[in-house]
Amino acid sequence: GLDPHGLTAAQVLLTHEDLRARARFLGVQATLRQLIAYGTIPVINENDTVSAAEIKFGDNDTLSALVASLIQADHLVILSTAPGLIDLRGTGQIVPVVERITPEIEAMAGGTTSETAVGGMVSKISAARLATRAGCGVFIASGAEPRILARLLSGQGPGTFFVPSGLPLEARKRWLAHFQRPGGTLRVNARAIPALRERGSSLLAVGVTGAEGEFAAGDIVNIAGPDGLVFARGKAGFSREEIGGLAGRQGDELARLYPGRRRLEVVHRNDLVVL
């Protein structure tokens, strides 16, 4: 327990819905930050009693990464039965540092499953990707190692460190990227991809080729290229039904279709994040 160490804990139970609704998301964020400010250690679990199977976090690795992103933590430590990411297909040694999660890194994780955890190392790599994109450094190490937390933070512990990637996403885009479950998918042509990915443009109707799923204006949607691969996510400016009539149209055509409407972007750049 924590009492012998003079520490106080507070249990916090979360569901995916707590993070999906923006107002509830901000409420959870404020609560956790206040607990930390008081010197209280939040102990966070999924509220299994009210979480439907289709909206569960899935595993504690994912939950930990989402919480780390939520509070903008500097570091996330994921303790495992494994001593870190092991290069089973090469040296057989622990990989000390991962600068970027590549297909080769994912392949290493595919060979290190654990029967005592959902997803094993695969889920931990997925969680590391999510957290590092939020600007959080991630350690994966063995929970059986003595004083492992202190050793990791002093740079002496055995384990794998995942370097945070570039500048963290600003708060709203982090929420869009990680805490929302998309209701559908917008398909775009090849010309739209560099405009969104490299130039930070809004998604315009002329770049849209179609839509899948059911969603209303204001819902979160995935954005996929001609190959079907999802590369972005954002808030739809039009419903699924409206998209069918405006896909591929130029701006002046939209202005005639929607006279007086101020925003004609399918997804505005302020509501769009590249994954």
Give a description of the structure.
This protein is an alpha/beta fold. The chain has three domains: 1-56, no CATH class; 73-179, 3-Layer(aba) Sandwich (Carbamate kinase); 182-274, Archaeosine Trna-guanine Transglycosylase, Chain: A, domain 4 (Roll), CATH 2.30.130.10. It contains ten helices and eleven strands. It has helices at 16-20, 22-37, 60-70, 103-110, 120-133, 148-153, 171-178, 192-197, 240-246, 251-257, and strands at residues 8-14, 40-46, 75-80, 97-98, 137-142, 160-162, 184-188, 208-213, 220-224, 230-235, 272-274. The strands form three sheets. The protein has a five-stranded mixed beta sheet, with helices on both faces. A four-stranded mixed beta sheet has the order 3-5-6-4. A two-stranded parallel ribbon has the order 1-2. α3 (60-70) runs parallel beside α5 and α4 (103-110) packs antiparallel against α5. It is globular and about 70 Å long. The chain starts with 7 loop residues before the first strand and ends with a strand.
What key phrases describe this protein's structure?
275 residues, alpha/beta, Carbamate kinase, Archaeosine Trna-guanine Transglycosylase, Chain: A, domain 4, 3 domains, 5-stranded mixed sheet, 4-stranded mixed sheet, 10 helices, 11 strands, 32% helix, 20% strand, globular
